[in-house]
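Bump. Still looking for Tetratricopeptide repeat-containing protein structure tokens.
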Amino acid sequence: MTTTIVRIASLVLGGCIAASMLSTPVFAVGGGGGGGSNTPTCKKGQIYDKRSKQCVKQQSANVTDENRTDYAYSLAKAGRYEEALAILDTVKDQNNAEVLNYRGYATRKLGRTDEGISYYLQSVKLDPQYAKVREYLGEAYVVKGRIDLAKEQLNMIKAICGTGCEEYQDLNAVILDPSKI
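Sorry for the wait, here they are.
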């Protein structure tokens, strides 16, 4: 405990804490999807291995595509979009609805909205009942000023999981107030 406090105090002296410099995993903010808030984010160049429950070197990691996909989403939700894309590049099965959705999410958050939409549309083709991709596609349409298309996605989500699911509520909130993106 004392070592951790000393380590944090030394980082604070610089005026900010650089989470990626901490030796212990930093938990990502946000949830939903495969990654969720329970997947730690590791230092750059590492990946969280669910089996060993620790951060390991990315190059030597023998982790599943699902593990890599979940970890990439965790990085994206933590605002580490370029790193998320780099991890997604290591997934063997690139033609996967979640991989394409998370690639779209990270790309959109980097300001490349049209490119993000193209990934979302590929994901929808693979799994039309995947509510999370429809939420993010709707958000991208809001960014583009296409509220009509966002509302179409909202109606699709309603058909998939109703108005009580997180994806419906999140997209509806963004449609009502685009500043929530």
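The radius of gyration is 18 Å.

Edit: fixed formatting.
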